[in-house]
User: What shape does this take?
Amino acid sequence: MKGATVMKGSSTSKRPLKKSAKFTEVQETLLKEGAAIYVDKKGVESLYIDFPYHVNYVHSYAQDSPFFLGLAEGKLRGTRCEPCKYTWATPRTHCQFCGEPTKWVELPLQGKVHSWTTCHYGSEAFLKETPYNLVIVEFEGANSVLLSRLKACTEEQIYVGMPIVAKFASEPKYLITDVWFEPAPGALKG
Ligand SMILES: [Zn+2]
Assistant: This one.
């Protein structure tokens, strides 16, 4: 990320770093990384630099863990409340109707497009594949839907009811991105 993009659209102007005999070497490195002096309306100069920032975030999936463990085994797991006869494709550990704990069930690996959108901007994890297609997936036997990505086709080729199949990362990272969908064989028209 270049420092110059930080101030885009603001009323400041950008200038190269002032030369300083003491820090010439450091400044050359900073310049390569996008560092600059920004000047605001009042003429106040601010030095901007880029530096890498890393956070190790420890996250527990708790009761949702079976879903993410399933992705690593090439399985899509939903949950079901037997008394209410309701199956969630996006798992819930407790029934939204009666409040009882639900049971894990395996969903089919083929579904249908319920709806979709094309994202022309995404968070850092998706920037490399932008623009990409987000799809809401319906499954036979499930009462709710699952949000995922649809790959291997263009936006123009997608249609409501399109048969799609789940694909899984060969090296799971235990993230929701371990699963995505692609058109089922013969699903593309024309
Ligand atoms: Zn219930």
Observations:
- Residues 81, 83-84, 95, 97-98, 100 surround zinc ion (CB under 6 Å).
- The two ends are 41 Å apart (CA to CA).
